[in-house]
Write a structure and sequence with these properties.
Chain lengths: 311, 452
């Protein structure tokens, strides 16, 4: 931002003192935003740097990696500050950690539960928004009540249920846990459907469409923003959830998702050897999600604000 | 789920076939040649009776006793060593009991549907109308009863993965399923309100932990919600000033952190603020701190740990509120401001009379949701401090433990399931009271139906 630009921006102002005041505000704003950006970027930058760092261990001596020097058999060795070795190590299975497999597991679970829970949430919210039937209000109140119980209070019970039908420690169990009760999360989506004019439905009904046709052929095609919002949230869930996955999977490394895998790398006895790999893994998880999120950000904002406006 | 139709309100004498439907489900439909529907009802009845005879009644009785035989060693004639005899599994008994109750409830609903269906078909016949075929019935489920079709799978999911487990865990709170009563070796029993008594008044250490943790949970939820809320709005206002350039860039920088999986950013923050972490390192390198021994103990000092988690939460949460209030700011009609300018209002007045009311009005439900969400904000505390530093006066809890993380510690570490469930119910009562007091007073709830 050059000084010329600033004067151009403030050029419209009539009185000189007003322009000066305005400029002060603007400069203060920029300083504030720059400081803010630095605070927000530093931790992310640090993870990326650590992913390429040669120096082992959880704590580096400096923020930016330095060439790593160590002594072995009386000889002194030096390695360059940055390396790709962490990524190679990450993809070499050892001690039961197979990152490629974890990544694939998470991806499968994310895709399936994304489809199921998007359908559940959209179907429920559409019904709650558009159709009128006897138990509608009851259902909405039950949903409100269920939402107030802490989520993993029921975790133990779910674990025993899945165990009694013999599918705990499988990916299917994770899919069920992530998407099973997603019908309860209909509030945001319902807010969206509430804003779609009812005249559309009525016009279609006059033309002889039944309610199913109205939903599938009229409403669904124009609900892209909210569907994308739901799908994005559902897809990101399995990448980010850690506690349910850990509780369900226990020690079955074959079905670990990236979240539990990465967390396990930070356990006390492993953290020194695995920390750089943790950072490398984090980068590989975060980058696809960030790309996805950034490209669909518009829908996300619409979803968030739509939900906030309508409750 | 079963709608009252106008026809069923016309009272007519139940015919023989309808009366028989009370006993033999689907008879009314069968006698009017609605075979698929009739056989369906009949099959459900037979299946239900078989289930009840085979295991249902037993399950209900077991649910009352929660098992009578403990695992014990028995001397069997002909064998030298006593043989281990496995006893009843109270946990499974309770689970099957709850499941049976739900099946009975579902059956009662089907039974009522069966009576209604019989009455309806009888009425249609009397009025000389065409009896709907199976295909007609199917068609209704795409039109008048479309909600049943759409909700069937979601509701099944909710019943299995939310309602059933929650009821089960509520039941657990009234038993003594704790570390001394672990299945399958031991039995546990119904103990009534004993757990609640212990938690609130009975057991001194326990109630000290509960009220201490509760206080911190509420303080935390308050600060976590409002710091993020107002800071997010301020950031959004600054970015959205007319003259500020690169709006997209500033926004994207903050949004990056939303896209970063939370457990990663939290674990990174944990390393960042630890005694040997980047923050302390940098301060040492700059000469502000004299060696690692004097490092700022972000997570070890109780008060400092609490402040740290609130600040880290701002790092996580501000981008969310920023995004949301940006959306709202952009949607405030510009002519409101123009009208205000014409009337001679200055910027400060416009902010307090137009911008702020608009934001607060549209975000009240969000604010309440966030507050409840923060009461249950497990991830942040667990991944950042793990509840620590440990407090010796507490029962298995640390200074930054929220009620939820304490609940988790009790289940995963101590296996005090009954206590954990008790806390779960108390959390529910707190959240519910809070929501009832606030949420039901908001316009968007009251006028939910009219507001479309």
């Amino acid at each position: 931002m050059s000084a010329n630009n600033l004067t151009a921006v403030t050029g419209k102002a009539n009185s000189k003192s007003y322009a000066a005041q305005k400029r002060t505000v603007l400069i203060a704003s920029y300083v504030f935003l720059i400081v803010l950006s630095i605070i927000w970027v530093i931790p992310i930058l640090w993870v990326v740097l650590t992913a390429f760092r040669t120096e082992p261990g959880q704590f580096s001596s400096t923020f930016f990696p330095r060439p790593y020097t160590w002594v072995e058999d009386g000889m002194q060795y030096t390695a360059p500050a940055y390396t790709l070795q962490n990524f190679k190590d990450l993809f070499t299975p050892r001690e039961g950690f197979d990152f490629a497999k974890m990544w694939l597991n998470t991806f499968i679970v994310a895709c399936i539960s994304c489809v199921i829970s998007t359908f559940f949430a959209v179907a429920t919210s559409y019904v709650m928004s558009r159709l009128r039937f006897k138990l509608r209000k009851t259902f909405m109140n039950v949903a409100l009540v269920m939402g107030m119980f802490p989520g993993f209070m029921s975790m133990i019970a779910i674990y025993f249920i899945l165990k009694s039908i013999g599918i705990h420690q499988t990916l299917l169990a994770l899919v069920l846990v992530y998407s099973g009760a997603s019908g309860l999360g209909f509030y945001v989506c319902k807010g969206f459907f509430d804003t779609v004019p009812k005249a559309l439905d009525e016009a279609a009904m006059i033309d002889g469409a039944n309610k199913a046709q109205v939903f599938f052929q009229i409403i669904l095609p124009m609900s892209k923003p909210i569907i994308v919002y739901q799908a994005l949230n559902a897809f990101m869930g399995p990448w980010m959830d850690f506690i349910f996955a850990k509780f369900l999977m226990g020690t079955n490394y074959d079905t670990y998702t990236v979240a539990i895998g990465l967390y396990a790398m930070l356990e006390k006895e492993r953290i020194y050897a695995y920390f750089r790999q943790f950072a490398a893994g984090s980068v590989l998880v975060a980058v696809p999600i960030m790309v996805l999120f950034m490209s669909l950000q518009r829908y996300y904002v619409e979803g968030v604000t739509g939900g906030a406006v309508k409750g | 789920m079963f709608q009252k139709k106008d026809e069923s309100e016309i009272k007519i004498e139940d015919s023989f076939a309808t009366k028989l439907s009370f006993l033999i489900m689907g008879f009314g439909n069968l006698s009017h040649k609605q075979f698929v529907k009739g056989i369906g009802f009949l099959a459900i009845e037979i299946g239900f009776i078989l289930f009840m005879v085979m295991s249902g009644f037993k399950n209900l009785i077991n649910m009352i006793t929660l098992g009578t035989v403990e695992t014990h060693d028995e001397v069997v004639p002909g064998k030298i060593l006593p043989v281990r005899v496995f006893g009843d599994n109270s946990m499974l008994f309770l689970l099957y009991g709850v499941l049976t109750c739900m099946i009975v409830a579902a059956f009662v609903m089907v039974w009522r549907a069966n009576i209604k269906s019989a009455r309806q078909v009888q009425l249609l016949e009397k009025q000389g109308k065409k009896i709907p075929s199976f295909m007609d019935d199917v068609r209704i489920y795409l039109d008048e009863k479309f909600h049943i079709t759409m909700l069937f799978l979601p509701i099944t999911g909710i019943l299995c993965f939310s309602v059933l487990p929650t009821i089960y865990m509520i039941c657990i709170a009234f038993t003594n399923y704790d570390r001394d009563h672990q299945v399958p070796g031991n039995l546990f029993h119904w103990v009534g309100l004993q757990n609640f008594g212990n938690m609130l008044i009975g057991d001194e250490r326990m109630s000290r932990t509960f009220f201490g943790t509760l206080l911190w949970t509420i303080i935390w939820a308050f600060f976590a919600t409002f710091t993020n809320y107002f800071a997010g709005i301020i950031v959004a206002l600054i970015i959205n000033q007319k003259d500020v350039k690169f709006k997209k860039l500033w926004r994207s920088v903050l949004v990056l952190t939303i896209a970063m999986p939370q457990f990663i950013s939290l674990l990174v923050m944990r390393c960042f603020f630890s005694n040997y972490g980047v923050v302390n390192r940098t301060l040492i390198n700059m000469g502000l701190i004299d060696g690692v021994d004097n490092a700022i103990k972000f997570f070890e000092d109780p008060t400092l740990a609490k402040i740290t988690v609130i600040f880290v939460n701002m790092w996580i949460g501000i981008p969310h509120t920023m995004l949301m209030s940006s959306g709202i700011l952009m949607n405030i009609p510009q002519d409101l401001y123009e009208a205000a300018t014409v009337d001679g209002a200055n910027k400060v007045q416009m902010f307090f009379k137009i911008t702020l009311p608009q934001i607060i009005f549209t975000t009240t439900p969000y604010l309440i949701q966030t507050f409840i969400g923060n009461i249950n904000n497990f991830n942040l505390i667990y991944l950042l401090t793990g509840g620590g530093p440990t407090n010796a006066n507490y029962y298995s809890a640390g200074d930054t433990d929220l009620l939820v993380t304490w609940l988790y510690k009790l289940t995963s570490g101590n296996r005090d399931y009954s206590l954990a469930s008790t806390i779960g119910i108390l959390i529910f009562i707190i959240s519910a009271t809070f929501s009832l007091l606030t949420y039901t007073n908001t316009k968007s709830y009251k006028e939910e139906d009219a507001f479309q």
